[in-house]
Amino acid sequence: MKAFVRGLLARANYERPKIQRKWEWKESAGFGCVTSPPPPEKGLENLTVADVLLTKDTDGGEVDTWISCRTNDTVHDAVKNMAKHNIGSLVVLRPGDHQCIAGIVTERDYMKKIIGAGRSSKITKVGEVMTDESKLVTVSSGTNIIKAMQ
């Protein structure tokens, strides 16, 4: 989480070079065209949760795809899934075909409740170590990122 916040702050404090013109002339195959400059960077105060989630798409895949596991999966499989996707947490769904959120499992859950407690990740189920959905604080995608971090 600290690295996430540092990344957001770095992004908010990043200043792009000032653009002198409102347009630019480009030549392509003997034809010229007028192009607009890229949109300005949003400051942290104008950044929403949706903006941050859209920047998470680094593999060219679907932005709105959930990477999840089920309560009856082993912690070992969940951690392998996190490592494969280079993420630190998974949404935990209840068993079955419906998309009912049961909670979240994080790297910290693994470290404290498996490694720290001397348990086996190959036999412990995610539902035994996850944070239950009743304890989660959630926000909508339109929430300001500063408000979400609070």
Automatic annotation (TrEMBL):
Record key words, sorted: CBS domain
PROSITE patterns assigned: CBS, IQ
Signal peptide: none
Coiled coil: none
Limits of the CBS domain: 62-121
Gene source species: Noccaea caerulescens
Protein name from the UniProt record: CBS domain-containing protein CBSX3, mitochondrial
Lineage: Eukaryota, Viridiplantae, Streptophyta, Embryophyta, Tracheophyta
